[in-house]
Each structure stands twice: as C-alpha cells, then as structure tokens.
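Hello forum,

I keep getting stuck at the same step: I have a sequence, I want structure tokens, and every attempt I make locally crashes halfway through. Rather than fight my setup again tonight, could one of you with a working pipeline run this one for me? It's a single chain of 367 residues.
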Amino acid sequence: MEESLYSVNKFKKDDIRAVNAKFEAQKIAFAPLAFQAIKSMMNLNILKVIEDAGDDGISTQDIAKKTGISEYGVAVLCEMALGMYVLKLTDDSDEKYKLGKIGWFLLEDDLTKANFWFTNDICYQGAWDLEKSIVNGKPEGLKVFGDQWTTVYEALSALPEKAKKSWFDFDHFYSDIAFPEALPIVFSKNPKTIVDIGGNTAKWSITCCHYNPDVKMTIVDLPGQTAVAEQNAKKEGFENRISTYSGNVLDDTTVLPKNPDAFWMSQFLDCFSLHQVTKILKKVHEAASANSIIYVLEPLWDKQRFEAGSYDLQATSLYFTCIANGNSKMYRFQELVNAIESAGFKLDCSHHGLGSNSYTLLAFKKA
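Reply #2:
Ran it on my machine without issues. Output:
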C-alpha cells in the first residue's frame, strides 16, 4: 500500500491527556445542541453582527438591539459559542464578544459552509435513524423526505429546494474543486470520446468540452439526472458534443456504451458498496477496449493532507448509511483499488492531493 499523504498513524495512538479526552467527550455528548446553537446564531444574524464589530467587539445589549433578539436569547447562544471557541471575549473590562477563528471558518470558509448546510438540510433529521439504518442495512433516515424512494439519488429532483441546493452545493464543492488539476492529466492521453458514468448535472462533461474542442462526451445516469444534464449541455452550446444514456448501472439489463477512449467516474463509486463497485466495473470491463483508460476520482480518507479532511470523509460515510443508500461509504485507497481490480482491471497510476480537498485520481487499464 502506498504511503498516505496524511498518516493513518494518528489513528494508532491514544496519547491525548485524560482531561482533554473528557472535554472531547462532552463535545460529543452535547453535539446536537451545539450544532443548533450555531445554526440559530447564523439564521438570527448574531454571528454576522459580531463579525462586523471586528476586534472592538460588541456587547450583549448591542447585539440584541441590532438583531431584534432578546438579551436572554443572545446571552445563552453567545455563552455556548464561547465554550466552543466560536467566540472570544475582548481584553477590556467590558468583555464584549468578538469572532474567534472557528467562528470565522463557520461564516467564511466554503468547505465548512458546504458541510454545515448539507448536514442541516439533508442529514440532521434523518440521523435520528442511523442506528436503525445500521441494523437494517438500508437508509432509514431517507423517509424524512418521503417513503417512495430506496436511495437519495432517486429523490434528488423532488427534494425541497433548500435541501436540493445544499445537496448539490456539497456534491459540486467536493468534486469540482479537483477538476482543474484532473483535466490536464486526463487530456494528456488525448481522449476523443469519454463516457461519464454518474455524470449528474453534466459539470464534468461541460468542463471537458470547454477544455478540449474535439472531445465528445456521453453521460450515463438515472433519467432524472440525464434530463437535467441535457438542459445544462444545451445552455452551454454543447448539445452536439454531449449525449446522454439513461439507465441504472446496477440493473442487469443496462449495457454501457462500447469502446470509448476513456471512462470517467467522479465521486461516483463511493455511492455503492464494494460488492456493487466490482459489479459496476465488470460492466465497464465488458464495454472497454484494450486501450480504454478508466479514471476514478475520489476523496480517500487515508490519502488526506490534513486530519480535518479525514474527519469530513468519515462523517460523510454516515450520510451514506442513513440517508443515501444504506450500504456505501468513503473508502480507503487499497479497499477501493482491490474492488476495481477484482473486476479485471489493473491500477496503472494514481495521482494524490488534487485540489484543496486532496482528491485522488486513479487510472486503470484492463489486466
């Protein structure tokens, strides 16, 4: 196994001091209340008012006047935020509130905002059924959006607008951020035809058409997604270069387009169990030529530069468990490679650390 960018040795040591471990345990115990406190401070404009006050800070009374919230409401929220280090107190005797570094990330960091609102709008209510999802092996939390779907992907086009926005903001933030570094790697092989499996709203296919004037793309996805992809391709003027193929890749009757120069799967295989990954790749194997290159772009939790990146991915796995499908997760490098190679492929090369979220681009060929 290749050396990780972010060493997994961190997970082999238990060197935290007991007093700090107890504090971390309290954070877990009160986590739902802490989350709701920050959401309330955002929605009620309290955090923004404090940010605008700068290093001079602002008093409880002035926050109440500017937001229209009672001093009591401001006080309980701000005191909780102090305990989370979201806020700090000024050094003067008035001890006004000012934004801490953690508070700044909550308000201004794109990664944190995407994660926060995704958790709130997609995961929070359904997480109550995480335990049931683990036991039953299906996404029991999905029923908060309706009981007619078996996976979240079938439900996407019908989600409430706010939830839909948060889902796509989350999905696109994570995948799109690696595109600029992935493009020159893929097009160094000069592919003329690419099958984009799980192409969703056509983000990657459109990006490829802008990058290369000759490439032709075929998007494979569920009917709801291909309909949106067709609309987006037309808006960009690429309706003659981007075609779609509607179907469920897990359906035994679905046959993939034959012999493209490349297959592309971006943040797609984490939507399936390892058994299903192998099943999908066997279909790809049947459709691929001896020269086809299979590209897989994924964030792997043991290939992250920073501990926060691994944590984000480990948490995202629980979304898959209780909301998305009940059987997939964010994978480690070797387990994903093994599942793909079991379908008759061999890893040709891997590129780690793409984008600020440390994506990995894997390239496979027929064994």
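The CA atoms of residues 176 and 203 lie 8 Å apart. If your local run keeps crashing, start a new thread with the error log.
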